[in-house]
Amino acid sequence: MALFPQDALNSGVRKREVFGWAMYDFANSGYTTVVLTAVFNSYFVGVVAKDAAWATLAWTLTLALSSLIVMVAMPAIGAFADMRASKKKILVLATVGCVAATLLLATVGRGDLALAVVLIVLSNTFYSIGESMTASFLPELARPDAMGRVSGWGWSFGYLGGMLSLGLSLAYVLSAQARGEPATSFVPVTMLITAGVYGLAAVVTFVLLRERAVAQPYQAGSGGVSGFAASWQRLKTTVRASKNFSDFRWLLACGACYQAGISVVIALAAIYAEQTLGFKQADTMALIFLVNIAAALGAFAFGYGQDRMGHKLALGVTLAGWVVMTVLAALAQTATLFWVAAVIAGLCMGSSQSAGRAMVGLFAPQKQLGEFFGLWTFATRLAAIVGPITYGLVTVLTAGNHRIAIVSTALFFLLGLLLLAPINVGRGAQAAREAA
Predict the structure, then answer these.
(1) How many distinct structural domains can be found in the chain?
(2) What confidence tens digit (pLDDT) does each residue in 254-280 have?
(3) Does residue 221 sit within a domain?
């Protein structure tokens, strides 16, 4: 049996186009890996904010602000993309914005708090828009019964991109530290590396990925509306009609909960390792590199398992794995147990994010892909606000106790499991087909 079978793809879709689509996951993963997870977050806390007592909370509030912007704008952007058949154009603009802001992060030094906040908000906002747009192409490429596999191809390939950016950055950091250079010297170079990989890899996507959607003008009343006003009108109509998509609504609630926990791991794992276990910058980067390997394997293997065992069961297994991970991380007194927790986190991260994207693809009507994935992004960005801020507040209320904070994160995964229970995948997919 072929590892990448042609019969997993819709009619008229070539493997090279799926490769181009997966290259965007490859391109943007370096941003989350290096900027949000392994390097700039700890640099923000320890150098930019001068390791102040409020530094971790300031980082989480900065990410929350960018997520709030995306929450407000993304559903309408998705509706606009469907109406104008402009998913690819918006993807290009979002990529340029994120790459440019990441390049400018190289200018941030000690005490440059305002500049760092502005650039993180901009880069993370553009990143989130691009992530939503690329996800909305999945149902156009994959057959319904192969959605998990194809989503897994993209996620697993994406983690390879994250490892490339992180590996190049780690090599430079180790050489710089050997020369006795401070973080203010080598961290800016890692931002340049990350932006370079992102921009170059995304070009492959722009060349190979096709825009298949057909423009769907929306008219309201006799006069009609256009632009974003029309997209908001259409979005309101979809929200009112969402009672016909009850399983999708349950999935949004479930995703908002478990993604809150994942957001904590992405944004604060390096800070936790450094503050609780005394990890150094190179140790943290090596840890995240291992997490990316595990995540790539988890996303790829679980994508095939998801199509066989069912999307709901697959997601439930990964959420249970997340609970185990948080308990192990909280109990870890030595680096060894924390590394075990990190491997579990990697396996669960790739599989749970891929599973969620595949389920949205099944529940989204064909003519409203941008809109439904925009609503999914609304849920995940809400999670990105609630999760890290909860963690930051717990550290403030417990005088900096990161162990209690990581235990509180397990509650998000448990709540996600409870909200997964009412979902009927077959019923949700049928509702999408009827709407189309």
Answers:
(1) 1
(2) 999 999 998 888 777 777 787 777 887
(3) no
